Amino acid sequence: MGMAAVLPGPADFAAWRGAARGMLAAGVPPEDTEWRVAGDAPSLFAEAAPPPASSGAHVPRAFVDLAEIAIRHADPERFALLYRVLWRLTHGEPALMQVATDADVVRLHAMAKAVKRDAHKMHAFLRFRQVETEAGTRHVAWFEPDHHIEDAEAGFFVRRFAGLRWSIVTPRRSVHWNGTDLSFGPGGRRQDVPPDDAVEPLWRAYYAAIFNPARLKPGAMRAEMPRKYWRNMPETAEIPRLMAEAPRRAAEMLSRDATAPRPNPQRLHPPGRADVEEAMDLLDAGTDPKAALAALARELAGRNDLPDFARRATQMVFGEGPVGAPLFFVGEQPGDEEDIQGRPFVGPAGRLFDRALDAAQVPRDEAYVTNAVKHFKFTPTGKRRLHQSPDAGDIAYYRPFLLREIGIVAPRLLVGLGATALRALTGKAVPVMKARGTILPGPEGLPVFATVHPSYLLRLPDEEVQRREYARFVEDLRAAHAQAAA
Amino acid sequence: MDLRQKLEILADAAKYDASCASSGTAKRDSTRGGLGSTEGMGICHAYAPDGRCISLLKILLTNACAFDCAYCVNRASSNVRRARFTVAEVVKLTLDFYRRNAIEGLFLSSGITRSADWTMEQLVLVARTLREEHGFQGYIHLKTIPDASPELVEEAGRWADRLSINIELPEAGSLKALAPEKDLSEIKKAMGGLRARIEGAREDLRTARRAKAPRFAPAGQSTQMIVGADASDDATILGTATDLYAGYRLKRVYYSAYSPIPDASRALPPIAPPLVREHRLYQADWLLRFYGFSREEVIAGGEGGMLDLSLDPKTAWALKHRADFPVDLNRAPRERLLRVPGLGAKTVDKILATRRHSAIRAEDLARLHVSLPKVLPFVITADHRPRLLDSGGLRERLIPGTAFVAAARPVQMSLF
């Protein structure tokens, strides 16, 4: 026997679910059901109403989520479609929702999509007009949605305009917010909403001014803002004029004589701090080693023959530490964080190095830290920059600057952290693990103490090995410190 | 000058900035006071006849500027009319438009007058007034001036959802030639500074008690590159873009076709805006970020460092890599499906879900609203095997006759 459900409202999901459960429990197949909204014309045949029941059936969450939205669609067949999908889900096709190409599933998705789009356009294109009443300021809007979305979307406007008192009137429904409570009423007419608003001329002026006549693409505009919405949007009254004038305005801009650059445009900066500092550095460079370091940094940063990768870095990262520090640490190159901050040894490896220095009781004012290569060399991969090892040519490019840096700081011992640093300091390839803990001959007769780069410790997979290697690294630093003091 | 005239001048001055996003920020609403909400999804409140979305009130505080960037309508040597809003005027316009549900919020930029700090201070003051005095919960995007002091940048990030610094041109040399007061390395340092602050604030959100975490630009940072004002090719533009995404974690790089402006500079005569090229760059950008393509692969689809203007970059790439096709829609892994011209990421996921239950056939593709002429030459389905893959005429068949290429060209006025 057939069954008919009469739902109290056009988008009442709870009522639909109740009726569907009853039908399912009674085993009524989709083709024997009929669905109506209260007030619709009844069918010719008297049919039983579904009894309240729990079907005991489990359906995927994906169906419920989709059904709650699709039921707002204006299509009178939506209730039957939902029941048919429910029936199929509970009669041998539990994975139906995953079959994106099934005709019923496609239709259900299309309905939900249309409802969502309608809601999105309501959020976007509805315009309030402000009216002064005896009871104070009110905001009133007229909108014509395609689907039964008024009740579902009221919350959006409450969250956005909780402090205003507003009404939204549509042909089927009206929604009112008094600042604390939401209420719903019957539909209305466009005339229920005031015809204009004092701010609208300004809004229309903005709309016209933000349009670029040299980029006329009315098709793109209509695809996103179909004409059916235009009559309720005040700014669209400008469209015919803007489109009519666009070709002439664009042609004028293209044909007009260009203006010559003003020979002496008003300059913003008086000679800045930086320029003054630079001049001072140059003056002092001969006598003051700090000024000499700053001048060296500036010289390197300003070179126009830098390797290509250097131009892609954020900035040059120079050495840091006191002039005359007995220990001069050389790492490989700045990493991602050093590149952003402009300071050496501030990334993960730098933090580990700091910890090890503390553990080895090397006082800060006895250490100068720098890198063999002074720009970050990387390969971009999505949201990360992957460190790329500098090659022999890169090291050779920066080597003269490193040697001058050493000359100015005048340390007692150079410490090479890893292969790149050792190559830069000794001028040749050095096997790190073999040389570790030994002294090699360096530039200007300075001794070079060889050890690993702290990033090597970070890369060790085994925790036990990591602990052991870290302890060895601390020992190396302690040995280097003792050597420098000897 | 009345408010309306100012609005016309200062909106006109702002329209060459393509950014209009209002998405991806923290969720807020006005149920506990104030005005406005942000719910994650951006909303385009209108579209202009240039096809662009109007989401934010996009204006300059003033179009007076000490810089003389050749491509810019507001450069010091231009003869455009100048105007200046007061802070109170911008605040009132924003609130008035917002209450009518005409905008998602404010995108405020400014010409640089007096000093970088003075200008930045004015921008910050507008944002602070909106947030503090009016409890404004809507979206705020502030342009950041690279030389502004760290304290001002810090405060800008507290009030704004998004901050942006425009790189303008992809190479230091072009920037020097066309925007002599700007400096690429200063711009990159400033972007790096923003990245550090944005990440710092997120880290604090995770670790500290939420209520105490300082806010900093929850919708991240973006930038814009002008396309066609200098001689840079697409390979260079996309190379700079990939470095920017990777280095500074930008949410978006906007590409803006160099557009004719009133009173153009003789150093940079006006041209018809290269809209198709701009569109191809956006498509390529998408392939880089969401489809696992490298810059080199995308560029290899074109010739001489330029993308193919007549085909979308995925189809162009596929035509030059025919040996990688056909792809079997019922067997191939996700990465390979993403490489098929005409298949978007969502469609790929639907195919993956569906094929576990039933074999994919050509008619299924039609149900998924896929363009069959575009897809079928490159795929195998249960009932279809492509025949034209090696044909020399395939490229011509794939060039769309009515699609974007034609639509993007400025049209004469008969359509209305």
UniProtKB/TrEMBL annotation, chain B:
The keyword Iron applies. Residues 184-211 form a coiled coil. It comes from the Bacteria. SUPFAM superfamilies: Radical SAM enzymes, RuvA domain 2-like. GO terms for molecular function: catalytic activity; iron-sulfur cluster binding; metal ion binding. Its cofactor is [4Fe-4S] cluster. InterPro entries: Aldolase_TIM, DNA_rSAM_put, Elp3/MiaA/NifB-like_rSAM, Endo/Exo/Phosphatase_dom_1, rSAM, rSAM_sf, RuvA_2-like. The keyword Magnesium does not apply. Residues 49-294 form the Radical SAM core domain. Keywords: Coiled coil, Iron, Iron-sulfur, Metal-binding, S-adenosyl-L-methionine. CDD domains: Radical_SAM (cd01335). PANTHER family: ENDONUCLEASE/EXONUCLEASE/PHOSPHATASE FAMILY DOMAIN-CONTAINING PROTEIN 1 (PTHR21180), TYPE II SECRETION SYSTEM PROTEIN K (PTHR21180:SF9). NCBIfam families: rSAM_link_UDG. This is Putative DNA modification/repair radical SAM protein. It comes from Falsiroseomonas bella.
